[in-house]
Each structure stands twice: as C-alpha cells, then as structure tokens.
Write a structure and sequence with these properties.
- The chain is an alpha/beta fold and 464 residues long.
- Among the domains are: 180 residues, 3-Layer(aba) Sandwich (Rossmann fold), CATH 3.40.50.11540; 79 residues, no CATH class.
- Helices cover 30% and strands 19% of the residues.
- It is built from 14 helices and 18 strands.
- The strands form four sheets. Strands 2-15-14-18-16-17 form a six-stranded mixed sheet, sandwiched between helices. A five-stranded parallel sheet has the order 1-12-11-10-13. Strands 3-9-8-5 form a four-stranded antiparallel sheet, with no helix packed on it.
- Helix 5 links the parallel strand 11 and strand 12.
- The longest helix is centred in the middle third of the chain and has 15 residues.
- Bound molecules: iron/sulfur cluster (SF4) (2 copies).
- The site of one iron/sulfur cluster (SF4) has 15 residues, from helix 13 and helix 14.
Amino acid sequence: MKVYSFLHGGISFEDRTAPGRGESVLSFLPGLAVVPLVTQNGSRSLPVVKVGDTVKEAQLIARRQGAGSANVHSPVPGKIIDNRTWNMASGVFCNSMIIRMEGSFSMLGHTEKRYKWEDYSPFELRGLIETFGVVDMDGTGVPLNDILSMYHQTDIPVTLVVRCVFDDPWLVANYVLLKERLSEIATGALIAARAACAAQILVVISLPEYAIGAELAAIITDSGQFNTELIVVGARYPQRNKRELGIALRQFERKEKKNLGLCIYLGPSTLSAVNDAIILQKPPLERYVAVGGSAVKRPKVLKARIGSRFSQLFEECGGFISRPKRTAVGSPLLGRPVFSLDEPVTASSYAVFAVCDESAVRNSATNPRVLELRNQRQLMTGKPSPVPFKHNYARAIDCIGCGECRAVCPVGLDPEDIYKMLSVQIYSPVLSKLCRQCHGCGCCEAVCPSRLPLSRLIINPSGS
Ligand code: SF4
Ligand code: SF4
C-alpha cells in the first residue's frame, strides 16, 4: 500500500493523558448555556432575541450579517437571562447570550423526520447549510456556505477532500465520531460535494486508521453518485495541515496521473453537521469534545451541547486530581489558554485539557531534559553550559543549541536562528519573509527542551 506524506520534519506526537478511543459519553444538558454570537474567527451575528425572551430548542437567536458570520441557534430551550461580553480562548471579544434551561425540548427525544437530500439542487443545499448555521467545525469555524460558494462557479474541477487524518491524539473526539456516525458522515460528504458542484470525492485517511477510512470510502462509492478515491497518508504531525496534506495530494496526483484541481477540505464533525442540517433540518446543537490532561481524573470523549461550560465538562470527568497549572482548548501543541472555566464549548472546540505536571510549564530551569543535554554538552566540550550560540543574543540564553527545532520544521526553517534574531528585535525583509513562511504548526516549540516560545514568536513577531 502506498502511503503519501510530506517530505521533511514533523513529529510523532503521543499523549497518554488524552482520552482513549472507546465510546463517547452523552454529557448532561447544561443548566446554563453560554452561546457566543460570533464564529471562532468570523464576524458578529445580529441578535434577534433579547434578555427576558423565552427561546425554544434550535430557535434562531442571531442572524448572519454577510460573509464571515453565521446564523446562531439556541442549543437548549429556556430563558435568556443575560447578554454578556466575553474574551474567548480564540482571542475573539464577543457577546454571548446566557440561556437558563427551562421548558420542554422540541427535538430531543422526538422522532426525527427525515428529508431526501437528492431532491435539492446545489443552490438549495447551500441555502439550507447557511440557514442552519453550519460552520467548519474541524477548522476555524468559518461558515461552511462561504467555503462552498467559492468553488461552485469555477471551470477548474473541484475535489471534496474528506480529511480523516489523526496525527494528534487530541483528535480522538473526531475519531470516535467517525466510528459512531460513519454513514451520516458519508452522506454529509455526498451532500457537501453536490453543494460545491465537486467532480469527485477523495477520502484521506492516516495509515493506522486505514480500516475505517476504507469503510467510509466504500459507503460513498456504493452510492454511485461521485467518483471516489481512498488515499492513505502518514500519521506524523502536522500531516493534517493543509500545506502538508497538499504535498501528499500532489504526490498522489503525479503517481496516479489524476487531476484533483481545487480541493475543499472538510472533516468528520463538519460533514456530520451537514448531514443533520439537510436530512434532519436541524442546526448543529452538540459536538464531540475530548476532555482530559494530567489534572483530570477520568478523561473522556463527551458528546456535549454547544454552550456547555468547560467547568461542567471537567466535573463530568471526575473533576481535577490537583489544581491545574494550565487549562487550554485544542491540542497541547496548538491549544489556546482558557481564562475562565465558564467559557463554553463552541462549534469548533474539539478538545479541552487541564494539566498539573511540570512538563506542561514552560520553565527550562526545571526541565530535566535541558539539564541532561547541558550535562552531555559539558562532558563533550569540557566547557560550562550554556555553550556558545550561533548568535550571542542575550534573550536566547536558554537555548542549548541542540538543533531539534531545525530537524522537525516541516517548512525547512531554522527556528533557533529566527527566534534569536527576533528576541533581540533584529528585523529585516529576509527575516520577515522567513516568518511569513512559518505556518505555526508548533513542532519546533513542542520538541524544544528549553521550552522556548519559538512558534508563538515566529508566527507573531510583533507580539500583537
Ligand atoms: S518554525 Fe513554524 S513551521 Fe517551522 S516548526 Fe516552528 S511553527 Fe512549524
Ligand atoms: S530546540 Fe530549543 S534549545 Fe534546541 S536549538 Fe532549537 S531553540 Fe535551541
């Protein structure tokens, strides 16, 4: 079997504090739901309800205001008790409706009427996707209709890439979702491909998960609607990244003499939501979230309502073993700090973790790996560490010159060099160009024994 992969760098990321790949656990319904009126990286939506109003389950509470924003629906029935401004972990400052759950559910526990997606034109499908507020739940929360609308009028063939690449143990929630909703995800892929007027579907699966990828591709092929291919890629992080996945797909194109044209990348959570929006005509009200980390008693994959607060999720996992030193949403490689446990699950929160161990704290003085490398270097050179650096810059004093960051950078950059120049604010056009090439995968930072904030500084050199 041919396995395609990017050419240089990357890491094999393992984390035993992430939840296992068993079944998902249905989370309790949130007594208080916090619903942000903005997609993760998008524009604000316009509220259509106010404090004091009563809302039904799945009722529209904020309307899309053009590209970048999406319709927002109430995840639970209840009363709006507040409209509060939050600074989300994503860095977005936004309003959120606080809904106190009360009354009866109009969807939960009722028989679901099913609609036939084949009856809709691509234009109607995109309209329904917009109406039900489906966003890219496996990415940055961009409204899905904005993505699909970019492609449907092009002369170049379009390929829908079903991205099932599990290069990070914190993507476990997506894996469990794929296992539990395989046929819904296959239908979601068919619908999305039709909505984007795609010519073909490509199922991309990482090697260890080959069996489930083959099953998914077989269901899509059996529908007879689209030409479908299965491609196997490596599982080294950041294989799922668009750049690295693009390298693997171009290799596939060359070897198999195919023309993929323009690619739209969608993952299991988004395709599952597309299925629900068209077949059940309901907006995304819940998502699978991996909850874990060394501070959490019983890590689990929870099926949680959007708007549930992180404190509730941690409680459902048995609470904390000890006071966490760091809590973040996303994977430890790219996670953004959570400032308040009252922050809610959003459409794109695939994981939340809390850690209490020293390795999670960026402090080189207590990192045993740094001491070990410094001692080795001292034995080899007979010189006291820190050893002389390539550049003698004061702020980079913690760098021990091991070169591990260079070895893992998939772009072929020299993070050590860039970091040292940036840390003393030596800007130049060449340095800016190098910084722009960095796509913030975080590999360099993950392997740096001195725990220097390499990728954070390189991706955002001005620190804004
Ligand atoms: S320099 Fe940028 S692209 Fe290279 S490993 Fe670091 S974060 Fe990734
Ligand atoms: S990995 Fe860290 S300590 Fe090693 S060379 Fe790179 S910046 Fe320096």
